[in-house]
Amino acid sequence: MALTEVRKRTSQASYLDIAGNAASTPEFEFMGTGFTELNEEPGAQTSSKRYVNNSAATRAITGYEWQTPFNADQIKSEKAIKYIIDVGKFQKNGAEAETDYIIVDLDEAAAGENAFAARKFHVAIEVASFTDNDGEMGCEGNLLGVGDPVVGTFNTTTKTFAEGVQVGS
Fold first, then answer.
1. Contact between 162 and 151 (Cβ < 8 Å)
2. In a 3-state reduction of DSSP, which class is residue 79?
3. Which domains does the chain have, with CATH numbers?
4. Between the CA of residue 52 and those of 30, 58, 61, what are the distances in Å?
5. To the nearest 5 percent, what fractions of the chain are helix, strand and coil?
6. How far is CA 153 from CA 14, 34, 111, 125, 144, in A?
7. Which tens digit of pLDDT belongs to each residue from 19-52?
8. pLDDT by residue (tens digit) across 105-129?
9. In the chain, % of residues over pLDDT 70
């Protein structure tokens, strides 16, 4: 009997646009070194109704409250971490605390060299705390989804996202 292979976290890459909303050209930076937690929580929202002819309720998915909790060491040479720190440090809000975040599935190649299936989320960066981890400074919070995700492909060399491009086999 063959063992079932569980997908590894390293088969997924995350990128943050550090140019933010003000720039016309995004500048995506890899979110790797320094991040000790970067989990995706779709946060399905449900409704429930029980009809008179049923003893059990009928439930449905009505939407999502998507978020990605993060925990990172404050490594300022890592551009994505510095960008997040600055949101909390300068208490940015509204559009100044929003940017784009991309999740790339490195195990799902797309047409073109170094292109992979990806999802782009517009996010609000919630910096919850600057932590002290035995004398080393950390940062934790959430990337909060703003609107619906966009499906496409991401080129890991050029760091560009193409919306709606179909994934190759």
1. no
2. helix
3. 9-163 (2.40.30)
4. 53, 11, 21
5. 10, 50, 40
6. 13, 25, 9, 23, 21
7. 987 667 999 999 999 999 999 999 999 999 999 9
8. 999 988 889 999 999 999 999 999 9
9. 95
For the entire predicted model, the pTM comes to 0.89
Token pair for 138: 């950390």
Residue 24: predicted pLDDT: 78
* 134 or 120, which is more confident: 120
The amino acid at residue 152 is G
Contacts of 91 (CB under 8 A, 6+ apart): none
Whole-number Å distance between alpha carbons of 166 and 151: 9
Count of positions (residues) in the chain = 169
- Cα→Cα distances 157→116, 125, 166, Å: 11, 25, 19
Cβ-count burial 29-39 (b if 16+ within 10 Å, e if not): bbbeebbeebe
One-letter amino acid for residue 81 of the chain: I
